[in-house]
Amino acid sequence: MRIVEQSPKPAVSVEELLSLMQTRKQDEPKAVGQVHTALWNLPLGAIILGALVIALGTMIIVLKSDIGVLKNDMAELKSLRTQVAVMDPKQQLSAVETRMEDAKREREFLKGELAQLKAELDGLKSERKKGRR
Fold first, then answer.
1. What pLDDT is stored for residue 5 in this prediction?
2. Ranges in the chain, pLDDT < 50
3. What distance in Å separates the CA atoms of residue 46 and residue 35, rounded to the nearest whole number?
4. What is the pLDDT of residue 38?
5. Half-sphere exposure of residue 67, counting CA atoms within 13 Å on the CB side?
6. pLDDT, the chain, mean
7. What does residue 54 show for φ and ψ, rounded to 5 degrees?
8. pLDDT tens, 67-95?
9. DSSP for 37-102?
10. Shared domain check, 38 and 70
11. Is the pTM of this model over 0.85?
């Protein structure tokens, strides 16, 4: 068995503890300026945080409405795609052919009018030349 000699610990008085605490407090640098700045920035930070939350909320609302519009557009495009897919390829070709024929007719009509306008312009030029002589 081990025998340990217990030495009585000296009693510390309250006065010694108080003086020790005061010297420690005096040794520590005071950060009053930092505490004041932190307290001053707290309300400003809260205001900025609130403004950011409001801005984020409005952005989310706008994004939600844009997503709704895009969904509607996608539905319209899908319906058009199904309409085109359902059409018979022969009908698609005939529709293109009729458009081409209409364009050719319109072109021929415009060529005729252009020729007529040229003839009238030549007639006006010749009348003008006769008037000068």
1. 60
2. 1
3. 17
4. 60
5. 6
6. 81
7. -65, -45
8. 999 999 999 998 888 877 777 777 777 88
9. HHHHHHHHHHHHHHHHHHHHHHHHHHHHHHHHHHHHHHHHHHHHHHHHHHS-HHHHHHHHHHHHHH
10. yes
11. no
Split into its structural domains, the chain has a count of 2
DSSP for residue 4 = -
Per-residue confidence (pLDDT) for residue 29, from 0 to 100? 59
Angle at CA of residue 101, ends 97 and 104, nearest 5°: 140
Amino acid type, 98: T
Q: According to the model, what pLDDT value does residue 3 have?
A: 61
Question: Under the phi-then-psi rule, with left for phi > 0, alpha for psi from -120 to 50, and beta for the rest, what region is 131?
Answer: alpha
Structure tokens at 25: 């407090």
Same domain, 94 and 110: yes
SS3 122: helix
Last residue of a domain, one of 86, 101, 120: 86
